[in-house]
Amino acid sequence: MSTVSTVGESAPRARTTPTNDDFGGRSGGRAFKDQLARILMWGAFLIALIPLVWILGSTLLKGGHMLLEADWWGKSQAGITARREGGGAVHAIQGTLIQALVTALISVPIGVLTAVYLVEYGRGRLARVVSFMVDILTGIPSIVAGLFIYAVWVTTFGFQRLPIAVCFALTMLMIPTVVRSTEEMLKLVPNELREASYALGVPKWKTIMKIVIPTSFSGIVTGILLGLARVMGETAPLLILAPYTKVIATDLFGGLMGTLPTMINQDRDQTLQPALDRVWGAALTLILIIFLLNILGRLIGRFSKVKS
Amino acid sequence: MSSITGRSAIDELPGGDGRPPLEADRASTGRLGDRIFGGLATGSGIFVIALVTLVGVFLIAQAVPSLMNNNVNFLTSREWEPAGAEPRFGIVDLLWATVTTSLIAMVIAVPLGVAVALFITQYAPTWLSKPAAALVDLLAAVPSIVYGFWGLQVAGQYFEPVAKGVDSVLGWLPFFDYTGTPSAKSTLAFAGVILAIMILPIITAISREVFNQVPTAHKEAALALGATKWEMIRTAVLPFGKPGIISAAMLGLGRALGETLAVTILLSGLNASDAFRSTIFNGGATFASKIALAANEFDSAQKTGAYIAAGLVLFILTFIVNAAARVVIDRRKAFTE
Do the beta carbons of residue A261 and residue A166 sit within 8 Å? Predict the structure, then answer.
């Protein structure tokens, strides 16, 4: 605190209001560090934006024109070789959507019920273990999920590699997202609502089904859409469990099914321009679908928040 | 956003085991509907436990026979010849590539992610804060395979001068020796950079969440004592957020370890005869990319078992990292409540 005394001695005139200098001052060094930190934080944000802008820019630039062709939304890649232009991505888009839909159909009930358990029923050790396992499930790499389903489905039960097995693997990845977001929403439902319902003699399960879940419904939908967005871009389980095909295939038990990620994977090593164009086109289509789900999810979440 | 931090209703509410039981929580009437519904909910919870357990059980069960047939030590061998009558496979190279790429990703993404989170929560003007957060979140929406393809086709070429620059300054260290083969975009270093971009959103999201929870009183106290904004952050925000940052880093690490396609596309494989090189400017294969590359060739039980063994190691690694992250988060709770 020597600065205080020196300042005081060199400026003997009486002052009524203390300034920064009286307390050691905002010395040049401190102000400089503060400014430097501010610049660094802004810089970090701008740096973080570079890859986003860059990746979206290149995908749009290189794949955009593919999406403008009518064939892209109307045809499959049947009979198209890497050398030839043309064909579309209908088979892959369909495959991705079908798999996502079935994945959602399996994981939403399990995920929502698990969240209901954690919020409404769970007590003590079992609940803690469930919560911990949801965390672990969140962290399981998609390729391990794929390997696990392979180990069960193909090696143990002796089935073929089928698109339905992909749905099982994706389910493992989607459940934790659904659980966590649903849980979050259920917690926002005011206890007064539950109590009011109980007071009217409504049994617990009806209270949950008719009061708690409807109140938080939009939030749950948001979670589901975000979960879907997460699994749609997954490629690793698809490589292990569902071989790609260029033709339209909609049968989950049919053996082969094209999807957008595997369509990208199929031609990613190509050097021929028509094939590369299609890879960029597929990448852009996939990103657009995922962004759309994200935006939709966030909008639903924003416009219908549980009011607590 | 606790969907990624893994905090749960069970953890958040006070009381020895979960929230204080609401009187009406015992409103379960014991009627059929209640019993069925309660049973379903509990059953789902147990299903999740069973699922994770089964992952471990199945992977172990199918890895063990292959490991018994293995002619070299699984943990210390660099070879990977899982097929044939005399299979030889070990994980040293895979572990090296996995850990190296993930660490590079962490070195870049943790400081950057924390800085971005500080920007969003402390520096950004109010109108920018939310859109900025949403933009960074969008990075998480780009699929892994697109990152890989973009890295290879577009961004990779710009890494060449970076690699040369690092080599000319630090090339005397064995870790930073860049010889030009494989080309810079196919190296562990570049895979690490791409992984850093991919784990940036999760690190930012969790740090952001913790920084938002810093009590205003702490921050105002610091400012009232004459601290500059940066000093306030250093003395109030960062210490409070430290456990959060650590767990964010761990969860990011968990992601990076298991990230598959981006790494698969970027890394150039090594020949079995290549001598081990400790430089980050070398090719290789991570656990995940090795498995992904073989995804269409699981023709024999022996071979499949070898890859499942690699998957098992990856599962154990991510399990440990994620569990540790969870423990750190739990500690923070104990501290703040």
Answer: no
Q: Give the three-state DSSP class for A273.
A: helix
| Predicted structure pTM score | 0.88
Burial class (CB in 10 A: 0-12, 13-18, 19+), B143: buried
Q: Which amino acid is at B70?
A: N
Residues 6+ apart with CB under 8 A from A176: A111, A134, A135, A137, A138, B3
Q: What is the pLDDT of residues A93-110, one digit of tens each?
A: 999 999 999 999 999 999
Instruction: Name the DSSP class of B237.
Output: I
Token pair of B313 as six digits: 């190691």
State yes or no: pLDDT of B295 exceeds 90: no
Is the Cβ–Cβ distance between A243 and B106 less than 8 Å?
A: no
- Region of B226 on the Ramachandran plot (φ > 0 left; ψ -120 to 50 alpha; else beta): left
Q: Does B292 touch chain A (CB under 8 A)?
A: yes
**DSSP codes, B54-114:** HHHHHHHHHHHHHHHH-SS-TTT---EE-SSSS-EE--HHHHHHHHHHHHHHHHHHHHHHH
Half-sphere exposure of A98 (CA within 13 A, CB side): 19
As a whole number of angstroms, the distance between CA A138 and CA A145 comes to: 11
Structure tokens at A222: 């948001």
What gap in Å lies between CA B82 and CA A106, rounded to an integer?
35
The answer, yes or no, to whether residue A238 has pLDDT greater than 80, is yes
| E strands in chain B | 80-81, 88-89
Residue that the structure tokens 């005011």 belong to: A190
Comparison of pLDDT for B222 and B12, the residue scoring more: B222
Q: State how far Cα B266 lies from the chain centre.
A: 18
Write the residue in B112, B233, B261 that is nearest to A44 by C-beta.
Answer: B112
- CA distance linking residue A258 with residue A242, whole number of Å: 8
In terms of phi and psi (left: phi > 0; alpha: psi -120 to 50; beta: otherwise), the region of A24 is left
Q: Which of B2, B4, B8 to mutate to test the interface with A (most CBs of A within 10 A)?
A: B8
A257, HSE (Cβ side, Cα atoms, 13 Å): 26
Chain B residue numbers with beta carbons less than 8 Å from the beta carbon of A41 are: 115-116, 118-119, 122-123
A vs B, Cβ pairs < 8 A, gives 333
Q: What is the token pair recorded at B36? A: 């069925």
pLDDT, tens digit, 9 for 90 and up, residues B74-98: 988 888 888 888 888 999 999 999 9
Instruction: Write the pLDDT tens digit of every residue in B88-145.
Output: 899 999 999 999 999 999 999 999 999 999 999 999 999 999 999 999 989 988 999 9
Structure tokens at B232: 């306030």
Task: Please state, in angstroms and rounded to a whole number, the distance separating the CA atoms of residues B305 and B291.
Answer: 11
Q: How far apart are CA B292 and CA B295, in angstroms?
A: 5
pLDDT value, residue B97: 94
Q: Does B42 touch chain A (CB under 8 A)?
A: yes
ipTM: 0.87
Sequence-distant (6+) residues with CB within 8 A of A37 are B229, B230, B233
